Structures are given as structure tokens and as C-alpha cells.
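C-alpha cells please, single chain.
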Amino acid sequence: MKLAKASLPGASLAVLVIQLVIVSSLAAKYLYQRWQCPRVWTKTAMYDPSLVMRGRYLSVQLTVDGCQSTLPSAKQAQFPRNLNGVPNGRDFSVAAAQVAFGAKLAVKDNRLVAIRIPDTEDGARGESVFATGGAACNQMRLSEPVNFYIAENARPWPAKPGQELWVEVTVPPQGPPRPIQLAMKENGMWKPLGTQ
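Here you go.
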């Protein structure tokens, strides 16, 4: 019996060390990606999440530029046309009621860009992108929201008319973007929000 009591603190200490190693390795991975992966500001829409775990966070949907993507069907895109009816330009709007596709995210020309993963490849490896009818190709959104945890005394909402909420994110090689900081944009002026 004494032997069992003596080994209990040793086993507890071993479990604690293993847990600290796991948490530290995740923190080191995220810190490394924050330094090495591309960062970009993107416009976002904020909404009140309905999750069981409630806390001080914002749930935001990120805006992505899908103009370099080919939609799953050509009928889903509507291109502007010249006087002769010939499509001009690469930008398009969504002609279908809604469009959704798997995409790989990248940063190009200081924009968060979604490149559709062809149906022949594994679309589950990418992020799900959607747009509703009439939306411009540079106003698509990620289907899955990103949670941004904030301090207890932070009050970044509601936005006033003419204000836009933007978030700076890190874009890792795989997985969703990771938020870094928020800013409010109004009349071309940026105001970082002290939410931490």
C-alpha cells in the first residue's frame, strides 16, 4: 500500500509534464506560423454565435477574393459585357442563388484570395467558400466563422453606419486563417481596436 501511495505523485507529475509539452508545442507552432506565414487584413462580418460555450469573443466571417477562381459551373458566373455583348474583364458576380466550393487560401496583392480546388482533387483539404446571388467575386466569404477572443472590458461593437470591421489574419499552409487583431475602418481611416 505504501508503494502505491509513493508512486501516485510521480504518475501525476508525469501526466502534468506530458500535458505541458503538448500545450507548449501547439503554442510554439502557432507562434512560428505567426512569424513565418503571410498576414493580411480582410473585411469581416460579425455576428452573435449560438454556441454552448459562451465567452468574451466575436465570431466573424472573413471576406475572400474569389475572382481568380473558376466556379463549379460557368452558369453560376455573370461577367460584365461590352456593347457587342462580349465579356470583358476577369471580375464577375454570382448569377446563381448561392454558390459554394472548396478552396485553397493565399495572400496576393495584399488580399485574402480563394483559389477553387478542382473537383478531381480532395476539396476537403481546403476551406469552404460561399457567395449569394449578385455578390461580386471579391466579396465571397468563408463558410466557417473564425472566433476572436477579446478582453472582458472590450466594446468593439456595434459598428456605426459607414464603419467596417476588419481583421488581420495569419494564413497558414493548412487550416483556417488565425486572427491577430481587429480594426475599424471609416472614411478610409483605420482605427485599431484595443480588444486585448
